[in-house]
Design brief:
About 5% of the residues have low confidence. The chain contains 6 helices and no strands. The protein is mostly helical and about 140 residues long. It folds into 2 domains: about 45 residues; about 100 residues, Serine Threonine Protein Phosphatase 5, Tetratricopeptide repeat. The radius of gyration is 18 Å and the shape is globular. Helix 1 packs antiparallel against helix 2, helix 2 packs parallel to helix 4 and helix 3 runs antiparallel to helix 4.
């Protein structure tokens, strides 16, 4: 009887684990958003590209219903970064969008988006952002 109960509780434990992981991600993103001034009544001290990308990440946490809106936000973040000439923000937005495209089996589109931005860098290859982009590009090959 004990093993039957354990087996019956397995889906509940798995769901609880997923909920805890998602909650941790949401809290981390909210903390990042809060430290950037999102929701404050004062002018925002950070890039619109960063804010729009973070909102896209939050939308992704909704699962499939948020994916289309997240893609739109990532593309808006790319546009903002390009307008500002902010290559690092462009890389972050492109990496977020490329992950989403990969998860939607749009691997070629993801690679075509991320590779040219990554190739524009001439230094800083030890940074977390460039290392993450490099790992993602390797997955997309």
């Amino acid at each position: 009887m004990g093993s039957d109960t354990s087996a019956a509780n397995l889906p509940l434990r798995a769901r609880d684990l997923l909920v805890r992981q998602r909650t941790q991600r949401v809290n981390a993103l909210r903390g990042q958003a809060g430290s950037s001034g999102i929701g404050a009544s004062r002018p925002l001290p950070c890039s619109p590209a960063k804010l729009v990308r973070i909102k896209g990440e939050l939308l992704l946490l909704q699962g499939a219903p948020g994916a289309a809106a997240a893609e739109d936000h990532f593309r808006q973040a790319l546009d903002w970064a390009r307008q500002q000439g902010a290559l690092s923000w462009e890389l972050r937005a492109a990496t977020s969008l490329a992950r989403l495209l990969r998860d939607q089996d749009r691997v070629g589109e993801a690679r075509d988006l991320l590779a040219p931005i990554y190739q524009r860098f001439t230094e800083g290859f030890g940074t977390a952002d460039l290392q993450a982009a490099k790992r993602l590009l390797a997955e997309l090959e």
